Amino acid sequence: MNVQAIQDYLSYSAKIGELATRFTWVSVLSYDDEYRRNQAVMNYRWGSDSQHLSTVNLREREQIHNKAQTKKNTSQQKGNRDTGSTSDSQCCGYYNYGRECPYGDRCIFPHICALCGKKHKKIEHKESGDRPPRFAEKKE
User: Fold this and answer.
1) Model's pTM, two decimal places?
2) Rounded CA gap, 126 and 114, in Å?
3) Upper half-sphere CA count for residue 97 (Cβ side, 13 Å)
4) What is the pLDDT along the chain (140 residues), one digit of tens a residue?
């Protein structure tokens, strides 16, 4: 391997690191996988840009200001427990399945029931029929 090829590969590796700061890690891995396959078949220089791969594979991360807005919205939702039905993706999964949330007060997801939006855990919900077996209550 010549010096130019090594420099190109290092440049490509740095590019992957930069992409990871802007795009989701899964999409960066998908991009990298397809890029490497294409590079092996077509033998183009490492670091050659492929707009098609970028467009098809890379997905933007949530921007920092959007996260701040989400935090603000979830704080407002925490204050109003009777928000009605919500979804698991909008509520803290740790809280809802009886685990201690490692994020505590910094958690961006509300600690409310994912089924009804009230201040209890999903696994404690009387109408919940979808409890995972490992969290089911033990009968003695």
Assistant:
1) 0.44
2) 13
3) 11
4) 689 989 999 999 999 999 988 889 898 999 999 999 988 898 888 888 878 888 888 888 875 445 545 555 555 554 443 344 444 557 888 888 888 888 888 888 888 888 788 888 888 866 545 544 444 444 44
Partnered with residue 14 across adjacent β-strands are: none
- ∠ CA 64-70-75, nearest 5°, is 130
Distance CA 19, CA 49 (A): 12
| Residue closest to 110 by CA, chosen among 97, 122, 95 | 95
Task: List helix spans (H) across the chain.
Answer: 3-22, 25-42, 51-57, 64-79, 93-96
Whether the CA torsion 27, 32, 34, 35 is positive or negative: it is: positive
Distance in angstroms (rounded) separating the CA atoms of residues 21 and 34: 19
118: DSSP letter: S
